[in-house]
Amino acid sequence: MDLLIPDKVHDESRQGEALLLEPVVGKNNGRKLYIESYGCAMNFSDSEIVASILADSGFETTSDFNNADVVFINTCSIRENAEVRVRNRLKEFAGAKSKNPGMVVGVLGCMAERLKAKFLEEEKLVDVVVGPDAYRDLPNLIEQVDGGQRAVNVLLSREETYADISPVRLNSNGINAFVSIMRGCDNMCSFCVVPFTRGRERSRDAVSIVAECTDLFNQGYREVTLLGQNVDSYKWSGQLADSSEQLAVGDEVKIVNFANLLEMVALVNPDLRVRFSTSHPKDITDEVLYTIAKYDNICNYIHLPVQSGNSRVLELMNRTYDRDWYINRIDAIRRIIPECAISTDMITGFCTETDEEHNDSVSMMDYVKYDFAYMFKYSERPGTLAAKRYADDIPEVVKQARLAEIVAKQQQYSFYRMQARLGRVEKVLIEGFSKKSNNDYCGRSDQNAMVIFPVTEGYKPGQYANVLVERTTSATLIGRIV
Ligand code: 5AD
Ligand code: SF4
């Protein structure tokens, strides 16, 4: 699930968030929706699609589930603890429902897809179970529940990309937005439940992606993050003439790959920053790297999950590359985009992993010196290839010790990368006030580092500022506008 972006994506440790939307004027049906999202950026982006579909049926939102007529939880199945968290949250919703029996409680997303109707047996107070490809059916399903039934739609689709739905931006700062460019995954990494919960890979119409990005820019947004489980295998064919004149030649049908799409989005406006997640080591091409290098507004930051530094373990994981291939891709990034920040995902204690093999993961960290890493203990997921084929045989204490080792290592390298920015001037997109003080702004550098600096006259959120880095922590650059 190569889909991480620092602090937004696949961080199921975050509390779910209440997402707010405005009702569509004139269509208000007098009912209130509360929606909470867990897991990856794709889920947060999907909740914006759900919000849009329900706003069309007249739902207004509330940030207090006790007041809601419909309570949805958009769930993640990636690791067991993600599911545990959702079940605990459902217990809290059950309390509210017992006081308000008309309340509709729904489970959306990956857990819905994984457990299907079983969810209704296991969690007696859930009324609706809806998988990631069935959100258009939500108004119907709610009606069924209103009529006294319980409702399930977990059909996966080979076509659904919600391309025509204009997401209602939730919890938005009006500056950064996620834009989903594909759905599903065909990779079948042996540890991963995503191919089962999100179905086959399909790419969204490039014209609708560029139109959405253009629209976002016109509304004042200054950064888009293109989302997919494996963006490098994006592929769409069709006519481009209307939406991207710079690239199109007449009305002929074009094949658009990820490099082409990046370029089309970069051309929307030089002031629109373009980020993307997630790249797959087996698919990331030099063409993509050259495109990143060519456009200043495509950020120099690549999330390239390695998962393990050992070739035997990578084979068991069915990642379809080995250590040398991954190193070759890292070397290509360093050669073509010397300033590029790189982050990763790493799993410790995968089935049969020995101490020596774990050491290969550690030495990979020494080789790449990642700017950032998401690190996990292996968590066996029912139905995956690994669960069927291999014993989950690494003791919890060993998984934990290996995890602690790589976490400590990463902290050193994050600090090292931050220190390397000292004395440099970073172009920062101002996102708002810093969490700690309204006297400071925060924003991200091109390389995706969080930067904090004093509020300065003449600068507002949504604008770019050149910030001289004067101090750092292992997670933040601190400086002043120059
Ligand atoms: N156990 C632990 N980590 C996992 N991931 C995916 N599946 C599992 C699992 N079963 C991690 C991978 C992936 C990230 C999003 O979550 O590192 O890239
Ligand atoms: Fe990512 Fe592999 Fe899971 Fe696909 S199967 S979502 S590539 S980890």
UniProtKB/TrEMBL annotation:
Its cofactor is [4Fe-4S] cluster. Monomer. [4Fe-4S] cluster 2 binds at C185, C189, C192. It is found in: Cytoplasm. Catalyzes the methylthiolation of N6-(dimethylallyl)adenosine (i(6)A), leading to the formation of 2-methylthio-N6-(dimethylallyl)adenosine (ms(2)i(6)A) at position 37 in tRNAs that read codons beginning with uridine. PROSITE patterns: MTTASE_N (PS51449), MTTASE_RADICAL (PS01278), RADICAL_SAM (PS51918), TRAM (PS50926). Residues 31-147 form the MTTase N-terminal domain. Binds 2 [4Fe-4S] clusters. One cluster is coordinated with 3 cysteines and an exchangeable S-adenosyl-L-methionine. InterPro entries: Elp3/MiaA/NifB-like_rSAM, Methylthiotransferase, Methylthiotransferase_CS, Methylthiotransferase_N, Methylthiotransferase_N_sf, MiaB_methiolase, rSAM, rSAM_horseshoe. Pfam families: Radical_SAM (PF04055), TRAM (PF01938), UPF0004 (PF00919). Residues 419-482 form the TRAM domain. Its EC number is 2.8.4.3. The keyword Transferase applies. Residues 171-417 form the Radical SAM core domain. GO terms for cellular component: cytosol. The gene is miaB. It comes from Mucilaginibacter gilvus. SUPFAM superfamilies: Radical SAM enzymes. [4Fe-4S] cluster 1 binds at C40, C76, C110. This is tRNA-2-methylthio-N(6)-dimethylallyladenosine synthase. It catalyses: N(6)-dimethylallyladenosine(37) in tRNA + (sulfur carrier)-SH + AH2 + 2 S-adenosyl-L-methionine = 2-methylsulfanyl-N(6)-dimethylallyladenosine(37) in tRNA + (sulfur carrier)-H + 5'-deoxyadenosine + L-methionine + A + S-adenosyl-L-homocysteine + 2 H(+). Belongs to the methylthiotransferase family. MiaB subfamily. Keywords: 4Fe-4S, Cytoplasm, Iron, Iron-sulfur, Metal-binding, S-adenosyl-L-methionine, Transferase, tRNA processing. GO terms for molecular function: 4 iron, 4 sulfur cluster binding; metal ion binding; tRNA-2-methylthio-N(6)-dimethylallyladenosine(37) synthase activity. Signal peptide: none annotated.
